Amino acid sequence: MSLKKELPSGPIPLSNGPIPSYHFGMSDVVIRLSEMRAYYGKFLAVDRLDLELRRGELFGLLGPNGAGKSTTVKVLIGQHRPASGTAVVCGIDVARDWQKVKPLFGYVPDRENHFDEFTGRKNLEIFAGLYNVPKSRADECLKLVELDEAANVPVRGYSMGMRKKLLLARALLHKPQLLYLDEPTANLDIHSSAIVHRILQKHVKEGGTVLMTTHNMPEVEAICDRVAIMCKGKLVALDTPLALRQRHSERKVDVILRSNERLVLDMDNDEHRRRLADHLAAGTVESMHTREFDFHSTFLKLTGTIFD
Amino acid sequence: MRWYILKALLYKEALRHSTNRGGLMLAALLVTASLVLSVMNPADGKTSQFIGGIHHCVVHLEDFDGPWAKHLRDHVPPELKKHVLFYKLDPIGLDKTPTYRTGTGAIQVRKLPTENEKPRYLVWLWYPAGDRAGMAVFEQWFWKESYRFQHAQASEELKKNGIDAANAFPLPELDKDESWNRRLVNQQLQKRYTELAGNQGSPLPGLDLQESSLSGSSLDMRAAIATSLVMFALFFTCVYMMPSLTCEERERGLLLAQALSPARVREILAAKFLFYPTFGILLATLLAGIHNANVLTRPFFWLSIVSLSLGSLGIGMSIASLARTQRSASLAALCYMLVVAMTMLICQQNNIVYIPYLAIEYHAPLILHATLTDQFNPDLWYNLLFCWILAIAWVLAAGYLFRRRGWQ
Q: Do B11 and A126 touch (CB under 8 A)?
């Protein structure tokens, strides 16, 4: 059984179309959400979400605020019961056998939750006791996130970034197969972010799976194997970052004429291409800039923000 | 239950308290107060009567339906109405020393064998040990009304004999005249009647007077303070500290972090149920032992302390499950204590009997105080039983509430 992803061969079509689905071997799938619906009171937070994550994958979950990302993660960690549908992790239904699912994942919340009065090391040792791992594992994890020098400092003296890293260290204590991270690099400097990326990539390389929510577009493009974009509780896109960008990119050119007139011409439109060619031949073009979509623009387009 | 998880959770609780300077300071203050209390012991070793307090008087009447008893019942002044209780005296068991609640005295009117066909009564005053003066207001009322009744009786008889009782035998202004002496009131009437009626027999009953002390019914101030310290230690750890720290963990997401670890909800609960009562019992035992080391050898004391700590834990965990924040948990704990105290006070002042039975705080001081003062009586086993029933009920309620919503 191959752990490496297999993308379809050939160029990615650039037209908008149905979200392509990749057919993975059944044993590769570690997380399966099927027609999952979740409510907060009468408010529908997640609407019929179908999602599969496989072993060895670093998966990004994006969306504007209120899209349903955190709710999805809460369902996976057993903190929110879905109104319908199922959430299955490694073949175990989360709602029915939560106790069996717990040891399989490590969770890094968006808000830090440490015992401020204890040192970083003591915080990890307490949880090491709960996970029944040796205390030395706490030191290993601290070294992994480069907090070993601050291990004996009370957490109340840590910066936001250090607290975030300590959360990651805690999630890694028991070497879980799955990692759920809620904005793991928020408030981290570039160096610390790089450390987190390195840890996550190493984790998936060793066969683990990472699901992370983030608003950091460059991060998504840099490290995620696949990305799901949610908006108002629905899944609006699911693919690799590159494929999404290529599929949804709008090849437009900003042209400023010598008469100070500004034109936006679509290179996929024949008439616009002809007009551009005419202007260029006539020498009326003052300046010209291509407007290729970056992933940020793709995200804004997919989530309904008009970008022009 | 997995021991390694319980161990980790208990270790966490112990560490948290070891860094809680406020809590440690308070525990130290309690111990210091207890030491000071035990050092400031009167040389004669007797209990001090620093504060009296008889708030109820039981009037036990053997002739409950007789005219004298009816007169007394109909002539209780408004300010004493709630404090004077009338009961029929059962002749069976008259030879035993009666027992009354703390802060209660009694006036028994017992029938004696007739003398020359004239009725005789024994008026027996029972007062809490060391608080004879506390019965004064009840005695005054009793003798005044008894005088009024007997004077009316004697006046009727004199009228029948053609004597103008209104002029010859006026009723003094009893409410203004404070100089009469209860010991002489009956004799005065008898003498005056004889003077007026001559050799005719007096209709007035003969009265014998007796007074005795009710041992154990007075409030031993030192023991009361020691009892309060013991109860406070348990309530502080289980009803105040525990919900406050648990809610803090919930607010900061630490309870969730523990719940997401392999620890089951019941294991998290079990660790709290083990740690806080144990800590409370240790502190309470230390305070009790400082006051009276003998209590530590008594099973009744341990049964009392354990039941009270479990009850406190149940109350505290219920508060922790319902309160959303640390602040609301602290306030809820204080409000609970205030509500219970006010309810106890109102019920006591208005002689409402059964409602206080539903509170652990009613039974606990009785059993603890009796244990600390070596004044155990068999009735206290009922209080202990109630305490255990209430404690188990609270623990079950707390467990249910915590599993439903306490950790989220």
A: yes
